[in-house]
Amino acid sequence: MRNSFILLFFCFGILGFSQELNCNVLVNAQQTGDENLPIFKTLQKQLNEFVNNTKWTNKTFSSQERIDCSMVINVVGYSGESFQASLQVQSSRPVYGSSFTTPIYNFNDKDFNFKYLEFQNLTFNPTQYESNLVSVLAFHVYMVLGLDADTFSENGGEAYFKQAQTIANYSQQENYKGWKLADGLQSRFALIDNLLSPTFKEFRQVMYSYHRQGLDAMSNNVKEGKEQIATALKQFQAMNSRRPNSFLIRTFFDAKADEIEQIFSDGPNVNIASVKETLQKVAPMHSSKWQNIKF
Predict the structure, then answer these.
(1) What's the CA gap between 146 and 220, in Å, rounded?
(2) Fewer CB in 10 Å around end: N or C, the chain?
(3) Residue 138 · residue 112 · CB < 8 Å
(4) Residue 15 has what pLDDT?
(5) Is 16 domain-assigned?
(6) Cα-to-chain-centroid distance, residue 227
(7) Ordered DSSP codes for 184-221
(8) Domain of 285?
(9) 153 vs 39, 67, 103, 210, CA distance in Å?
């Protein structure tokens, strides 16, 4: 009996402490010409442990619920403890009732300079600045968590986006790029500011209706699911008329353009002409893909 109790405690303990992410962090230092230096391997190992072993929320995630994501750090230069790099972050989630996954987040963070000493401790403080390395990775972790949650419930990612905003605010003190209004329209600051702004409220509505009411519903009725996706995409028209070619719309279609082309090029027929008209208006940067939609 005692051994059974210990086994149960151990199993529940594993579930209770399961982290939120299944993230592959890759450090690519080929452009430096010194990609085989031990410091890059150490950095990669430490960052994988940091991202995957930190408890980012107060919720319990089973191993099957962990969010699949990747972070590719491209180091282009370094001097001592100073590194110049960019960061590509991607995440996905499973589609209900299928073996498919759908891309959720695809962001190229071009302003990722940081300081790092080999084997230094990497710890995250939700209310206090630790380093730009920690802040940038933590910011994108909460973007991954927030966008994923928004696809399962309306505005489900609010708390995570608020934390990302807090990170953006306290990270301005060291004058690294990406955290301030002056850093441009495609910065971390712009991303979280837009996400939480009423001006772009349709974006989060689309995230929910596209995924939960559209993709997830296709396991029961493919045509109705596709129609829900078409309806969801039309919500971008109001947002686009308010702010044409907005950063958020571009981030959405950077992740979704290939998937949308595939959805409307196969399966039960829906009003393709209307869908293509909407897509050409709100995402003309992907017009070559929309032209490929033929049914």
Answers:
(1) 27
(2) N
(3) no
(4) 38
(5) no
(6) 25
(7) -TTSHHHHHHHHTSGGGHHHHHHHHIIIIIIIGGGGT-
(8) 202-291
(9) 42, 16, 17, 11
Which residue bears the tokens 């690519």? 28
Residue 3 resides in a domain: no
The CB density around residue 15, as the number of other CB atoms within 10 Å, is 11
Of 149, 172, 196, which residue sits at a domain end?
196
Question: Among 214, 208, 227, which Cα is nearest to 268's?
Answer: 227
Contact 176, 82 (CB under 8 A): no
- Positions of the chain with pLDDT under 70: 1-18, 295
Which residue has 């750090």 as its token pair?
Answer: 73
Question: Residues 194, 205: contact at Cβ < 8 Å?
Answer: no
User: What are the tokens at 262?
Assistant: 């595939």
- In eight-state DSSP terms, residue 171 is G
The helix/strand/coil state of 283 is coil
Tens digit of each residue's pLDDT (9 = 90 or more) over 253-290: 999 999 999 999 988 888 889 999 999 999 999 999 99
Are residue 184 and residue 223 in the same domain, yes or no? Answer: no
| d(C-alpha 271, C-alpha 133), whole Å | 47
Q: How far apart are CA 3 and CA 14, in angstroms?
A: 17
Q: Cα–Cα distance between 141 and 136 in angstroms, integer? A: 9
Instruction: Please report the sign of the dihedral spanned by the C-alpha atoms of residue 101, residue 105, residue 106, residue 112.
Output: negative
Among residues 115, 111, 119, which one has the least CA distance to residue 133?
Answer: 115
Structure tokens at 168: 């953006």
Count of domains forming the chain: 2
Q: For residue 165, which of 207, 199, 127 has the smallest C-alpha distance?
A: 127
For 72, other C-beta atoms within 10 Å of its C-beta total: 16
Q: Which amino acid is at 137?
A: L
- Kindly tell me the sign of the dihedral angle through the C-alpha atoms of 20, 139, 202, 236: negative
